[in-house]
Amino acid sequence: MSLPIKLTNRQQQVLWATVRHYIATAEPVGSEALLKEYNLSVSSATIRNSMGMLEKVGLLYQPHISAGRVPSDSGYRIYVDKLLTPSSDFALEIEHLLSDRLTREDWNLEAMLRGAAHILATVSGYIALITMPQTYTARLHHIQLVLVDPNRVMLIFVTDSYETQSALLDLATGEDNTPAEAELLERELQILSNFLNSHLRGRAIAELTQMDWTELDREFQRYGDFLKNILTELTRRSQSPAPTQLMMSGLSEVMRQPEFSEVHQVQTIVHLLEDEQDQIIPLIFEPSPFGKRVSIRIGSENSLEPIRACTLISSTYCKGKTPVGSVGMLGPTRMVYENAIALVEATADYISEAIS
User: Fold this and answer.
1) pTM of the entire predicted model
2) pLDDT tens for each residue of 167-183
3) CATH number, domain containing residue 106
4) How many domains does the chain have?
5) Is 122 in the same domain as 258?
6) Rounded Cα gap, residues 290 and 49, in angstroms
């Protein structure tokens, strides 16, 4: 295990200026550029000595012998952990945009999350990634039983975050029904739907099979096995939810960055985001370390090879106090971290408030 790197105040100033200049220009940084652009109050030789020391400890490197220096992943890590403050101006900007452009009238959760991803990507210039809420923490908002054919019923249920799922269940009637009998069955299913809503609305889906159903009304006794199947299906889906849907925006914008000039690199990132979302979603949803608001994985800190030249910033959003989904941002390691961190935090806060 390597010892922590201790920098003098001057070395911290030079590292801060080098990272800021490289983020702004995408060009290797020399001492003369720092002397001209930043008020470091020291000579060019002193800046060169500090940059040489930062290179010696692995925080900067030279891409070419005759070039200036470029921050390493470790250099960005020191910058992010020690030398920056998230931009409150950008946080306010994204809050205002989300509030102005995302209406909660005729509220649709998926549309709201897609809109938030688009706004986040537009403001940042990076790829925005937002997951749909996990269903295993959800509570039941509405349930409906719809007759599909004489022996099958579609179960439709809506969670408190307005996510809708459905499943086909067998209804053993024993024989095909006449039109009159089918009409009667539809009325009975509506009564049963009303009965279930009155008993189940607001309950955690994962807890439904633990309920005591011995006091079922006598008129519903003949539906006992069917009710058991309904509860089993609801609980199965809450424990093994459908793959979380990922809202993504900004792919075309970020590909204009010089870091993504190679076609092969672009293809591997696109393949990961479009065809292997089950690999990246756990990274976005992973809790932030040490109680921090955001998780920041820089370059080689990412476990997935296609994004090891990228930075992934993420923060969970909550329903009440329970984390149910995540907001992520993916871009080059040469990222404007002050703005990106503020944008991710503010968007996660907005979604938490909206769904709570």
Assistant:
1) 0.71
2) 888 876 556 667 777 78
3) 3.30.450.40
4) 3
5) yes
6) 35
